[in-house]
Write a structure and sequence with these properties.
Layout: H1 14-18, E1 27-28, E2 31-32, E3 34-35, H2 46-58, H3 69-89, E4 96-99, H4 102-117, E5 123-127, H5 136-145, E6 148-152, H6 162-168, E7 173-179, H7 191-199, E8 205-208, H8 220-223, E9 227-231, E10 242-246, H9 248-251, E11 264-267, E12 272-274, H10 288-304, H11 306-324, E13 330-333, E14 342-347, H12 352-361, E15 364-365, E16 367-369, H13 374-379, E17 385-389, H14 396-413
Parallel strand pairs: 3-15, 5-6, 5-7, 7-8, 8-9
Antiparallel strand pairs: 1-2, 4-10, 9-10, 11-12, 13-14, 14-17, 16-17
Helix pairs in contact: 2-10, 3-10, 4-5, 11-14, 12-14
């Protein structure tokens, strides 16, 4: 029984939960690890580590292809995971496609949807807040098809200018693709309004949910979103696994992303017929172990409770923001009122990388740089930021350690 199974109250017992994450006991340069790089990837609980080991000890076999015991066992667990993920998103299991991560999920839509529906002169809308994974695939599509990429501008606080978004929507718009939550600023976008406005003109919407799914409940039916993507490694699961949700009405009209085994019904040298969704988008042997274990990660998070997680992380955000605002010369980048637990900042006269190096020497892991959002960083006319991003296993004591270490680093660099 993992530690979370022992929690019976609705108050988050962080110290109990932390015992479930072996890596949090690590020392770095002789200091206890303070891990504030959760927006890049989260740490893994024992239930995930053990599930990976168990798969290779007891189940390892290819799926959908064999009639022997292990193949049937692997196939059943693989498809059961798909159903768990579907239930978590309030989707049908036929609408859940396994990918390598959010990046591949977005690329899949950019290629397959683009092949089916985008032509010369059409337009794709993204926003100024996007990760490169939600910029470059659309640029490639536009170059391939002769389409145009339009960008929703933002305010200095890091919020979308919704009036400008309304002006961008037109008969030429074929898709709107925006993130649910900004990985750099933590801004939670008004996705309900975005979807409603787009749908009023019969325009489908893709949401990059990589930074949302680990922190909040996502109901794709309630949102009425057309495509939704996320990565397992940010959701306390394995790397190399992600999910694309797509409405059946779109998936059934989209050509395969890749060709090979699994995605076919019948192959002859003259003609190949393709499998139905979701298998038509899952060519080759999938990442079976990670696909199965991702469901374990979702179960783990749900047993803690996303509402409890959200409250704790919001409290961490407020506490950190209050502490950082007292540091002379420090400026928080991204001050939208609706944020997840991400704080990006700069310190006057000091390069973010120098701060990151000195924090690491004190055992603190943060991310520095452009965070794969170069256009956003360029908007603020800065070289990058220091980003601290939190998960439910982080503590207020860690924030105190971080702030003390940050003050020390700043004093050394001035």
């Amino acid at each position: 029984m993992d530690i979370v199974a022992k929690i019976v109250t609705k108050e988050l017992d962080v110290e109990t939960i932390r015992k479930d994450f072996p890596i949090l006991q690590t020392t770095v340069h002789g200091k206890a690890l303070v891990y504030f790089d959760n927006a890049a990837t989260s740490q893994k609980p024992l239930v995930i580590i053990n599930a990976i080991e168990k798969y290779y000890k007891e189940t390892n076999s290819n799926v959908h292809r064999g009639i022997h015991y292990l193949s049937n066992k692997a196939t059943n667990e693989f498809e059961a995971s798909r159903k768990t993920i579907a239930a978590h998103l309030n989707a049908s299991h036929e609408e859940i496609i396994f990918t390598r991560g959010t990046t591949e999920a977005i690329n899949l839509v950019a290629f397959s949807f683009g092949e089916a529906f985008v032509k010369s002169g059409d337009e794709i809308i993204i926003s100024h807040l996007e990760h490169h994974s939600n910029i470059v695939p659309w640029q490639m599509l536009c170059e391939r098809k002769g389409a145009a990429l339009k960008v929703i501008p933002i305010t200095k606080e890091g919020e979308l200018k919704m009036e400008e978004f309304k002006k961008l929507l037109s008969d030429k718009t074929k898709l709107v693709a925006v993130n649910h939550v900004s990985n750099t600023l933590g801004t939670v976008n008004p996705v309900e309004e975005i979807i409603e406005l787009a749908h009023s003109k019969n325009i489908p919407v893709l949401l990059d949910g990589a930074q949302a799914v680990p922190h909040m409940k996502v109901d794709v039916k309630k949102l009425d979103v057309d495509f939704y993507s996320f990565s397992g490694h940010k959701l306390f699961g394995p790397t190399g696994i992600g999910v694309l949700y797509g409405k059946s009405k779109w998936l059934n009209q989209m050509p395969p992303y890749q060709g090979g085994g699994e995605m076919i019904k019948e192959v002859t040298f003259e003609k190949t017929t393709y499998n139905d969704a979701p298998l038509r988008f899952e060519a080759g042997t999938p990442n079976i172990e990670a696909s199965i274990v991702l469901a374990k990660a979702i179960d783990y998070v749900n047993r803690i409770g996303l509402d409890v997680i959200a409250k704790h992380e919001h409290d961490l955000l407020l506490y950190t923001t209050e502490r950082l605002e007292k540091i002379e010369g420090l400026k928080i980048i991204g001050t939208a009122p609706h944020k997840t637990a991400v704080v990006s900042f700069v310190v006057e006269g000091i390069h973010p990388s120098d701060i990151g190096i000195l924090l690491d020497k004190q055992g603190i892991a943060v991310r520095t740089g452009h965070h794969c959002t170069q256009p956003l960083i360029d908007f603020y006319k800065i070289p990058g930021t220091v980003r601290a991003s939190f998960a439910f296993y982080n503590t207020f004591e860690e924030i105190d350690i971080f702030v003390k270490a940050l003050n020390k680093a700043i004093s050394m660099l001035k």
